[in-house]
Design goal:
Oligomer: single chain
Number of strands: 10
Radius of gyration: 17 Å
Strand content: 15-25%
Strand order of the largest sheet: 5-4-1-6-7-9-8-10
Number of domains: 1
CATH topology: Rossmann fold
Bound molecules: S-adenosylmethionine
Structural class: alpha/beta
Helix content: 25-40%
Shape: globular
Largest sheet: 8 strands, mixed
Length: 280
């Protein structure tokens, strides 16, 4: 039974970090003319209305994209991400629509690139399918992303990005993600794999990272951003683990995270940083 609906959380602090990272990874792949594939295991609905009841109920976007949008001093590294947000909104008007990761990625893809999306939820899937109806570069599957990914790797292009963005509703999902990354890496050793994770109780987050350290996988960059203090209850922030990040992606993140922290957490209640969880 899937109960998580991303509409409640769209555009929050976690989305800003995740989507900024995804956009920069795609831009890095675009530095070579050879085509690449973008594969996503947990795609969501693709677009969210920030004026809809779900988003308004939590108002989480106000502490996320709401603080970043419209600032004149956003660093160049945020430009690809912000261009995807701008593409869904009318210039000069209040921010209304927020792109999920599939829409961020689609906005940045070139004519030679391809996208494969998986979504299991019976209500989110049709919305996503409809959004890309007739788009020959995009395939949308109503299937389990963990199982589907195995069948889809390696992509014919032999280059690409895999995004794994579960809701971690059940604790066993952490182990399932580690297993999935291991098996994806066996099939597609040169691929970039980006995994989003929530920062909840420290033991849980630390245990998750420890499993990656013990997995035998190498070259994993950890980008984390929390906006609430260590002792607070519930989700304090989130992070992205990036396996096989492109050259200099670590320095790009080191430059970007302090700006995001200053804007999203002006009181500096949380923490943020970039480190090699496992070096090369
Ligand atoms: C965090 S949301 C995804 C948000 C999206 N990646 C974005 O950034 O816009 C997680 C999604 O995974 C879906 N989901 C949960 N379990 C799944 C599974 N085993 N396979 C595929 N999708 C799943 C949920 O229905 C939900 O839409």
């Amino acid at each position: 039974m899937l109960s998580y609906r991303h509409g409640y959380h769209a555009g929050n602090v976690g989305d800003v970090l995740k989507h900024a990272v995804v956009a920069l990874l795609i831009e890095a792949l675009k530095k070579k003319p050879a085509p690449f594939a973008y594969l996503e295991t947990h795609a969501g609905a693709g677009r969210y209305d920030l004026a809809a009841a779900q988003a308004e109920k939590t108002g989480e976007y106000r502490e996320g994209i709401g603080l970043v949008w419209g600032r004149g001093d956003a660093p160049e590294a945020l430009a690809p991400y912000l261009s995807a947000v701008a593409a869904l909104n009318s210039p000069g008007e209040t921010l209304r629509y927020y792109p999920g990761s599939p829409r961020v990625a689609r906005h940045l893809l070139r004519a030679q690139d391809r996208m494969v999306l998986m979504e299991l939820h019976g209500s989110e899937y049709p919305v996503l399918k409809q959004a890309f109806a007739g788009d020959k570069q995009v395939a949308v599957h109503h299937r389990d992303g963990y199982e589907g990914l195995k069948a889809l790797l390696p992509p014919a292009e032999k280059r690409g990005l895999v995004v794994i963005d579960p809701s971690y509703e059940v604790k066993t999902e952490y182990a399932q993600v580690v297993d999935t990354v291991q098996s994806a890496h066996r099939r597609f050793a040169s691929g970039i794999i980006a995994v989003w994770y929530p920062v909840l109780a420290r033991e849980l987050t630390d245990g998750f990272k420890e499993s990656f350290r013990a997995s035998g996988l190498r070259k994993i960059l950890d980008v984390e951003l929390t906006t609430r203090p260590e002792e607070s209850v519930g989700m304090r922030g989130s992070g992205m683990l990036v396996l096989n990040p492109p050259w200099r992606f670590d320095s790009a993140m080191e430059a970007l995270v302090p700006w995001l922290r200053a804007v999203l957490d002006p009181g500096q209640a949380g923490s943020g940083g970039v480190e090699w969880l496992v070096p090369e």
